[in-house]
Amino acid sequence: MAKAVKSVSCIRRSKTLCWGAMLTVFGDIRSGNCLKVKWLLEWLGRDYRWVETDVMSGATRSTELLAMNPAGQVPAMVSDDGRVLAQSNAIIGFLGEGTAFMPADPWDRARMYEWLFWEQYSHEPYVAVARFQRAFLGKAAEEIEPRLMERGRAALDRMEAALTGADWLVGNGPTLADLALVAYTRVAHEGGFDLGGYPAVTAWVARTEQAFGIR
Ligand SMILES: N[C@@H](CCC(=O)N[C@@H](CS)C(=O)NCC(=O)O)C(=O)O
């Protein structure tokens, strides 16, 4: 479970003083990429610290955070032994190792990765970015670049096709592919996407939230 938040500058000081030997995640609680990591840690019952890092205030570009993750982004995870891992899907891949969310079958595992890479290249850049611009930057619908909406709808269309007649994206149970893709799909309406026309996706969102204990 998440422990109390400390300031980012704390990372420069003694690790025993600030973090102990505890897994620590730097993340913005409003970010789907960060929430993927939090949800999995909670589901696994792992002891961890969450350091809230406000994307809007530029905290991801602080000297401390850039020293950890030169990409200047969250999530960034500091493991128990002090090593740092960035990229949400790499982090959930590490944490999900050995769980039922990581298919043992090599083909199914590769298909899970297929969805994870697709999420970052063909879904998140449209669905999450439209949401960011609408919900966080306060842009009106007509200010959103039409291409963002077209590509976002194309991503949702692809998911609808994949989930029509299937409960999960890969195999017969939830995997990290479902976890990664639910993060921004469940809040797609905040970006102006109407999930009303996506019944299979809507049912899958509810199923995936239940499977991972997402509230
Ligand atoms: N591909 C990265 C994307 C991370 C990302 O875009 N993080 C955003 C928050 S959702 C961020 O830190 N933005 C701040 C910035 O780029 O300055 C991942 O999956 O972790």
From TrEMBL:
Residues 21-103 form the GST N-terminal domain. Its EC number is 2.5.1.18. The keyword Cytoplasm does not apply. Keywords: Transferase. The keyword Transferase applies. It holds the Pfam family GST_N_2. PANTHER family: GLUTATHIONE S-TRANSFERASE-RELATED, HYPOTHETICAL GLUTATHIONE S-TRANSFERASE LIKE PROTEIN. This is Glutathione S-transferase.
